[in-house]
What we know:
This protein is α/β, with parallel strands linked by helices. The chain has 9 helices and 10 strands. α3 packs parallel to α5, α4 packs across α5 and α6 packs parallel to α7.
Amino acid sequence: MKEKQNKISVQDLTISYGDFVLMEHVNFDVKKGDVFIIMGGSGCGKSSMLRALTGLVPPSKGNIFINDINFTKASQFQKDEIMKKCGILYQSGALFSSMTLAENIALPLQQYTNYSTKLISELVSLKLALVGLSGFEDFYPSEISGGMKKRAGLARALALDPEIVYFDEPSAGLDPISSKLLDDLIIEINQSLGTTIVVVTHELSSIFAIGTNSIFLDAEQKGVGAYGDPKQLLKNPPNQKVLNFLTRGEKKNA
């Protein structure tokens, strides 16, 4: 019964590039409704872990289960079906510059559903309203700010009502105010829609603001250096390296 509460279960995972082993023997679970943070310093494998979770990088060893289905060993058809229930927000937003926001968000609905043009248009407006961009349907990506591009990218990631949404460095390139607004939006989506969220980030403000569980990837250890609620890891750090990361090297106040 406990296993069924896991949206994602990573078991004895090894990721390598040729003879170079990036990480090995990685184990963690993402529970339903988590805002799960994948954190760590540069070169620890955060982005590679995200690519493995989304099927872009095949692991050298181990398995990834999504909704109790072995994603690693699934057929391409099964992987595609699983990924239809997942959304991804890339660092840049990855919007098509030649398409309006409405056209960008409509794309997955046109590709993966048989919805009418009218229904798709209504859903596009709904998703844009959800991320605070109501009325921007006819704007092009070049006509809006970086923070708005991220929110538009999120609207597209939410187009198919995914059970899981992956975020790749969502605060990258944003000013503090835009970053805070995006954090608030992630929390709202998680709480109102029950969406399970996985975030790759090294931004401490976001980690503590939104994270309910996390892993700290250690480049030297080539694996998980800590696992748990980031706020609890700050209160009771398992080692100096985790404490240094979570305090940016400053001493923790008594």
